[in-house]
Amino acid sequence: MMRMYEVKDRLVTSALFWWYRITNREEAAILQIKTDQLTYLATPDLLNLYRAAKQVEQAQVAGMFIEAGCALGGSAIAIGKAKAKQRAFRIYDAFGMIPAPSDKDEADVHARYDEIKAGKSKGLGGNTYYGYTENLQDVVTSNLAKYGIPIQDNNIRLIKGYFEDTLYITEPVALAHIDCDWYASVMSCLIQIEPNLSPGGKIIFDDYVEWSGCRNAVDEYFSDKDGYVFTRVGRKLHVSKTLR
């Protein structure tokens, strides 16, 4: 049975699709991601992610694009559509079972992890939850190609594993979309990405409002950092590095 919020979001997506098809064909194509049930992002948040990436691209901020946590690849498609073909885009994900939370995560996170671990998590539109898909990396690669972004032609790499084992950044970063929920995962991303973020670059936190672990990691990490502007855009936190 389709949940009420899924019905509502489909209706909103349908209305927005027709509007943007008339006024902006590029953004109308992004809305198809929702129709195809490839992202948990609400329609306005998906568009805001695309627009943020497009803004960074048009400003010619130096560095690569990064996504940490890609699910079925819906948000990666939005970012891939926004970037120049030659700009490097690195997508990091476990492409399997997510790691256990820690004592830095609160009860909400532990309850969610227990649900996933027990095999009880529901996927989008009644489909299988993406974390239970054995060939998830191939699925994401295929979804990118279906949207006209084959990884081999667009300087995109998918890197499999937990972030503390795979994410080592030694070059400038222009944009990072961090969608990995738990404290340790978010902190691993920040330790690697933030020191390499270019002036004018952005970090977008998908789960700052949703999960305590992400919120605790972000608040702790940036507590002694200057030179950033923090903006709530829809239900997401956008952190922009000031130009200096």
Automatic annotation (TrEMBL):
One Pfam family assigned to this protein is TylF
InterPro entries the UniProt entry points to: SAM-dependent_MTases_sf (IPR029063), TylF_MeTrfase (IPR008884)
Instruction: Say which domain of life the source belongs to.
Output: Bacteria
What protein name is recorded for this chain? Answer: Uncharacterized protein
Organism, scientific name: Parapedobacter pyrenivorans
